[in-house]
Amino acid sequence: MQKIKKGDDVIVITGRDKGKRGTVLKVLPTGQLMVENINMVKKHQKPNPQRGQAGGIIDKAMPLDCSNVALYNPQKGRGDRVGFKLLEDGRKVRVFKSNGEVVDV
Description:
Layout: E1 9-12, E2 21-27, E3 32-35, E4 40-45, E5 56-61, E6 64-65, E7 69-73, E8 78-80, E9 82-86, E10 92-96
Antiparallel strand pairs: 1-2, 1-7, 2-3, 3-6, 4-5, 7-8, 9-10
């Protein structure tokens, strides 16, 4: 089970986008994440008429490592570490380390 999944609300804890919040769009097998409006770069793109792409400078989201983000805890209002816990019915769920609140519903 992964600590950060697609659709989670995360906050960046290191790097040039430190303090920004976003939603995880994609989790890559290399342990990197694609986060909405985070780690945007300028890409100089050549036009390709066969694909219908216009040329110019476009903004492109790049992946960032999962160690550079923390799961956002709405009760605390900041990023928090994640642990795992087994419930009575045998399900394994993610919990916040600071207050023990269950992340998964």
